[in-house]
Amino acid sequence: MPYVRTRLGRWFYEERGHAKHEDDPVIVLLHGLLFDGGMWRKQVEPLAALGRVIVIDGPGHGKSESPPRFSLEDHADALAIDAFNELRIKKSIPVGLSWGGMIALRTAVQHPMRVAALAVLDSSAEAETLRDRVKYRTFIAFARRYGIPRWFADRELAPLMFGPRALAERGPELMTQFTRTVNGFPRDGLARACLAVVVHRKDVTPKLRGVASPTLVICGRDDRSTPPQKSQSMTAKIRDARLEWIDACGHMSAIERPDEVNDLLVPFVQEHVGSR
After folding, report:
1. pLDDT tens by residue, 76-90
2. Beta-strand relationship, 241-246 and 118-121
3. Is the dihedral of CA 78, 83, 88, 92 positive or negative?
4. What string of DSSP letters covers 157-221?
5. Which residue in 100, 102, 104 sits closest to 92, CA to CA?
6. What is the Cα–Cα distance from 69 to 215, expressed in whole angstroms?
7. What is the pTM of this model?
């Protein structure tokens, strides 16, 4: 299995497609918390028709190793320096949902020369509230000891991850797949990632003015995890950003409404993958 070595451990990755020109940016797909690279299955092939695509399992997720304690800033450095160097990526188009969007933003802030454009789906530049940090610490402690049983996922996580329409139409299927996937991750690594994302996450809103790359922001109108106003605020502070909405869609837009996501994402990536 292909792995890339980083300061946060070895990361599993998959590669699809080929660059049309040697210096074309590489499309890098970054998944959300509690998921893995498989959440992009409906986006990979349309994007691979445009160029080289790298799908990465984040630290403590999927087939990647458990990381040491880390911050989202550490994660962005591990991506843009360690992973990109080993994978020979000079310039990228990071596409991230939720946690992945947070890393895409930080990569654009910390390593602007490595980012040609970026897409941020259902994410936030802000820190969590104190109330939510306390709540999530409790969730993390529970999951570290017991995993994520189905009753817990249905009661506490489903409304945060998926919108009412998706849950009504295929809730049992979505939650069965989710619990099967997440309980295969190493618990300690998962807990460290969760702490970095929802407990120790810093507000990077003041730094967004420094994002010079064209940015596509996508948000489901029914997102309860990172509500629409987070995307509105983020878009307003990035100088070359546009915001697109997906109706009747919750937090996991790439899974819930893949066709609508592709209709927005693929033309944006196509516009920038060949611009040099």
Report:
1. 999 999 999 999 999
2. unpaired
3. negative
4. IHHHHS-HHHHHHHHHHHHHHHHHHHTTS-HHHHHHHHIIIIISPPP-GGGGGG--S-EEEEEET
5. 104
6. 29
7. 0.97
